[in-house]
Amino acid sequence: MKELGALDGENVRLKTEFGEVILRASVSRQAPHKRVAFIPYGAWASMLFGTATHTSGMPTLKGVKATVERAGEAKIATLHEITRMKGE
Amino acid sequence: MPELLIRNGYVFDPLNGIEGEGMDVAVKDGKIVERVGRKARVLDASGMTVMPGGVDIHSHIAGSKANCARMMRPEDHSRDPEVKTKYARSGVGHTIPSVFTTGYRYARMGYTTVFEPATPPLTTRHTHEELNDIPIIDKGCFPLFGNNWFVMEYVKQGRIEELAAYVAWMLEATKGYAIKIVNPGGIEAWRWGRNLRHLDDTVPNFDVTPREIVKALCQVNKLLDLPHAVHIHPNGLSEPGNYQTTLDTMECARDFRREGRPAMHVTHVQFTGRKGWSWADVRSGAPEIADYVNTHDHVTIDPGQLIFTNVTWMTADGPAMFALFKLAKTKWFNADVESETGAGIVSATYKKSNYVNAMQWGIALELALLVKDPWKIYLTTDHPNGGPFTSYPRVISWLVSNHARQKLIDKINKTAKRRLNLPGIDREYSLYEIATITRAATAKSLGLECKGHLGLGADADIAIYDIDPTKLDPAREYRIVRRAFAHAAYTLKEGRIVVKKGEVVRSVRGRTFWTKPKVSEDIKKTMMADLQSKFDDYYTVRMANYPIEERYLTASQAITTNAGV
Amino acid sequence: MPKATLQDVLCTFCASGCDNLEITYDGRIIDSARNGCAISVSRFTTSDKSRLLKPLVRKAGKLRPTTFARAVDRAARILNNAKYPLLYGWSQTSCEAISKGIELTELVGGLIDNTTTSCHGPTILGVQDAGEATSTLGEIRHSADLVIYWGCNPVHSHPRHTNRFTVFSKGRFRKTRKDRKLIVVDVRQTDTAKLADRFIQVQPNGDYELLTALRTAINGEQIEQETIAGVPVETVEEIADMMMECEFGALFFGLGLTMTAGKHRNTEAALALVKDLNFVTKFVIVPMRGWFNVAGANEVSTWQTGYPYAVDLSQGYPRFNPGDTSAIDAITRGEVDAALVVASDPVSHFPREAVKHLLKIPIIVLEPKRTPTSEAAEVVIPSAILGVEAAGTIYRIDGVALEAKKVIDPPIGVRPDVETLDTIIRRVKKLGARR
Amino acid sequence: MADLAITPVRQFKIPVTAECISPDFVAGKSLRETELTQVWEGNRKVKLGSLFKVAGEIGRTPNDCAIKIAGNVSAVRRIGYEMSGGSIQINGEAGMYLGERMKAGTITVTGNAGSWLGTQMRGGQIDVKGNAGDSIGGSVRGGTKGMRGGTITIHGDCGTEAGAWMQNGMIRVRGACDLYAGIHMKNGTIVVERGCQGRVGAQMTGGKVIVLGNAGGVLPSFQFEEIRERAKAGDEKIPGPFYVFSGDVNEGGKGQLFARVSDNPDLKLNERYLER
Fold it and tell me: Does residue C142 share a domain with residue C174?
């Protein structure tokens, strides 16, 4: 968080090769884990995953390379908006 | 259900002493009856052999072990699929068939009753879910007791009556049929990566010996008057020189014989019937074991015939499976069950050229040929350990025809051929004897009065094979015998035709047999107090959730016995 | 109806199978759920507003209430006309319902897959190559003197795991915490790691290298690298010694292995490590299965079709090859033309690309509560909540079968999945399955 | 060689299983017969003729048959199943299980090919101009025997587990490989010209993997042997120099891993093991 200059509770934008999403950042209670962010599963996190399963049926849902930046005023999408974005 | 008359078949019904007489069999409401009306449907069995439906006493077809093996071996399934038809669900086969395929493939061979010989009590709800799904055949399962903590503690304290009450409670709780012992004490030693080799070794932390466990449970079997004998897989599986342990184990049951009924059944004796000191020196212990069985009436056996094909070893004997895995170096699965038993699975292939495999194949056949009384030995391959149950017709061809045996003997490992007694044995089973070891004797051993025979009141489970016993010489035309037993002309289950010309034409639901020994209340009360005080310490499930309700079995058939305790 | 209490009830959250819950209820309202963990309480609150109470069918773009018969008919027609339907979910419904699901899949010629495909599917693929040395959880409580949690965080995911089965439990041969050593391996110091005697921080996606190094050390071979996945080689040797010197070791692993790069090969390496350890001591391995009946979905699918998940029955017999017949792959390639989703929410949890395709095809949903998937569906049929409003069999982490109990009646008109599926099957048969 | 043109009538979405598109199946059949052959499209049995236009002539024996497929058949599985001669030319995208259990003959693909290409193949040639999927030349699920012979050449990149459980034969990837190239390999040779993601030769028991380009590190279960000037791939000698590792020691493996020195600076510290 310090490197980012982000404050606890501030919105950040996460981007991976497959998609991006705005989420609220908070200091991890189970730190230190430098340069690693943790997101609970769900509609928002699944915006960031690819579908390649390499003959395992399982997409890569952990250890995914992502960039994090402060999102300024951008709002967090509602569940409805997230589903609509996935449909485009 | 319409009445049915099976006309003019050659009937083999060993229990009622009928050997190939041309006669009719009348069926009404699923039972064999004296006669039927004129409008009864007629099934012309002229020129064909009519037998009771096959009864398999020992075949690993259901439960947590079988399912872990299925899950672990997709390569075994993809080669042997069954496409769905109008009457039959789809499935997969070879060494561990899926449940629907299991029922259909048994019915195609004219088998109508099969028992799962080893279920950990804690996971028996799983076994019953699979048994419920297996179509057509009647069935049951044997819960494992040989390494159970409560059993070993009662044996240590010598409280046989409480032990009997505990076994009665467990049989009712798990809806099990008979007492099964596997490597008594040895699987408890496997908790620390060790095993027990002999009957008088001591079980760590419990201070009892396998001999004491076996004797106590044989005594309990008698006290509870259970329909079947104690079904045991002795210590020292696959160890060279373990035939002596088998003989000593048989000796334990000597004074628990019951009038006209044996006290012990030793299973897949081929795996524990070896003389010699090392793998390179395995010899056949069959003559000694056959001699013991011929000269005593308190024990019966089944050979666990080996087939030269790819198989899946599967037994509760965890330590033995790990030892075999170190030799086979294929896939190994192990699952110990808290305070009760264990399980081990290894995928393997039996080769004619391999010395030990060839000896195992020979020992099993020697047992079948040297035991004189067909009521004391039953046909099994300990499916899927020795081979899949679908290979029973091939085993039958080896038993009825010395020529068939000799052809294969010439192809096996030369040293094994020299050291086996098999080449010198020319006994050939008659169809009557085959009918005995595949249905009449097994039904009698299991104590199933309505099975394995065609007398009045028996279940109308009938197999009709396209063999004319008056014209066919099984010894010469063993291929015809093999093909006939592989694809029954007709199989009837409780009077309904389920298989025609080896194909399933109707799927019916089979019943699950279990025993319910009646024990006196006061003994039960003291036992229940022990159980309630220790259950939460020994198990991670609550005692209230351990028993399986009778409604859980889609078609339940309880056999009650009056315990002498 | 006076207030009543039910003892020894099974919790319907995770696969630990805690079956000593005490539920007090009054008519159709549950008052309290005691003896379980904090999460179990939420599983027994049934009256929240997102509850589905009426069958819904999409007309002119909007989901409108309809009768059960009409919803079943619509569902049956969609599945019957599809050329490659997917029947997905199954991990939070009963084994009896799963059995109906397989029958329906065979009838309509489709693909049946459960949430294993995005959870511990790689574990099973690993077992199919390397085998598995495991045991029921009670054996570990009684005997384990070394416990390892690798890539899992039971303090949050399986809250009572440590005090029912491992370091805080009371076993016959291990009575207290000091009779056991606890090692935690994770990419961060989780709350579970804070309980550990040794915490090993591994770099993300480095599990395979670390597992391989441990095997090399246990096989007595020389490791030539200084650090493996961020762990110094001396630590690797130390951990290897701890594993070899224990009397009975237990390795629990979670999605840290199955979801990171390497997937089924990570789990295979862990299974092989435990297999190697059995040559020197007694060791078992147990996956930390998620949903309370995901193991049941594998068991039923295996005994009926021979395969644990991702089973293609479209050609009249079972075929299995994750990557080809698994839900996420088949959907992403646009092969699936209809879907039945039971007790699961793929629209939320599937990767975005897969959801894009899923939203293009007609979806039938059997679900107790509204979810993004039910919002996007053609047909929605409410289900009674298993373990609360309906009884049925489930399988615990270690394959022990237990019975989920029915505590209260479901809302009027809401049926258990097994009944709904049975009705759909009969309807499809009446429509005359073509094949 | 008699040319048989099989052209998809549309872009298939529902999976099609058509192992009948193989010289062995069509050899000696009439065009009519071939068109009437039943194939699966999803859960429907349809005539081959309804999915593909079939034109040209069919040779009497497999070796006389040259099948030409123009268009995207990425949804068609098992083309060239167990073929023992002749050729298949796919101008476009090929599907999964291409040339599974193939004994001889050649398959060429101008576009990309799917996963499980050349599974358990015994001989013959497969040549893909574009990229290939995962587990090429590998085994079936739960099986322990991959390809036994023949050659697979991928001009683009290929996915994970190339040559899994490989028993023998040759795989040459002109592009890059994802993780686990040569996993569980028993014998045979794999050449990867533009590097791998890593974990090369995991759990291999024999055979040889030659990596030009960065190998993505070496597993701790491999031991550094020496630096060799050249590596032998079949009858070809590939100039090095190469770091040579042996493994996988966890499986008692005698496999060899060649990583070119110039592309693998991260392996430099192994040079300290060289005797001065």
Answer: yes
Domain count, chain D: 2
The Cα–Cα gap between B96 and B383 comes to: 8
Is the same domain home to C275 and C126? yes
Give CA C401 to chain center in angstroms.
14
Distances from the Cα of A72 to the Cα of A14, A25, B531, C202, angstroms:
13, 12, 65, 33
Answer whether A27 touches C (CB < 8 Å): no
Q: In the predicted model, is pLDDT for residue B246 greater than 90? A: yes
- C239 and C182 in a common domain: yes
* ipTM for the whole complex: 0.95
- Which residues of chain D have a CB within 8 Å of the CB of A65? none
- Find the length of chain B: 565
Give the residue carrying structure tokens 């003997």: B409
Nearest neighbour of C320 by CB, restricted to D77, D141, D220: D141
Of C17, C131, C317, nearest to B84 by CB-CB distance is: C317
Q: What is the pLDDT of residues B532-548, one digit of tens each?
A: 999 999 999 999 999 99
Task: Based on the fold, state whether residues D159 and D102 are members of the same structural domain.
Answer: no
Place of tokens 């004189």: B372
Q: Is A51 on the interface with D (CB under 8 A)?
A: no
Domain boundary among C265, C287, C309: C287
Structural domain contains residue A27: yes
- pLDDT, tens digit (0-9, with 9 covering 90-100), for C164-211: 999 999 999 999 999 999 999 999 999 999 999 999 999 999 999 999
Chain D contact probe: residue of B75, B78, B90 with most D CBs at under 10 A: B75
We report the CATH number of the domain holding residue A81 as: 2.40.40.20
Helix (H) or strand (E) holding C233: helix C233-245
Q: What's this model's pTM, rounded to 2 decimal places?
A: 0.96
The domain in which residue D256 lies consists of 153-276
Longest dimension (CA), chain D: 73
CB-CB neighbors (< 8 A) of B326 in chain C: 279
Domain match, D106 and D194 both: no
Q: Are residues C244 and C312 in the same domain?
A: no
What does the alpha-carbon distance between residue B77 and residue B94 come to, in Å, rounded to a whole number?
A: 6
Token representation of residue B185: 């004490």
Q: Are B92 and C306 in contact (CB under 8 A)?
A: yes
Task: Count CB neighbours of D122 within 10 A.
Answer: 18
Q: How many domains does chain C have?
A: 2
DSSP string, C159-206: TTHHHHTSTTS--SS--SGGG-EEEEEESS--TTGGG-SEEEE--TT-
Query: Per DSSP, what are the bridge partners of residue D128?
Result: D109, D154
* C231: enclosing H helix or E strand: strand C231-232
Q: Which domain holds residue C62?
A: 56-118+292-385+411-431
Could you say which DSSP state residue A76 is in?
A: P
* Rg of chain B taking only CA atoms, in angstroms: 22
Q: Is residue C26 part of a domain?
A: no
Cβ neighbours of residue C157 closer than 8 Å, sequence gap 6 or more? C14, C254, C288, C290
Residue A73: domain span: 11-87
Q: For residue D115, what are the CA distances in angstroms to B288, B498, D75, D132?
A: 57, 43, 12, 7
D134:C323 CB<8 A:
yes
Q: Which of C268, C287, C306 lies at the terminal end of a domain, its last residue?
A: C287
**pLDDT tens-digit map of C124-178:** 999 999 999 999 999 999 999 999 999 999 999 999 999 999 999 999 999 999 9
Q: Which residues contact B134 (CB under 8 A, 6 or more apart)?
A: B61, B62, B99, B100, B102, B103, B114, B510
B and D make contact (3+ CB pairs below 8 Å): yes
Confidence at residue C435, expressed as pLDDT on a 0 to 100 scale: 47
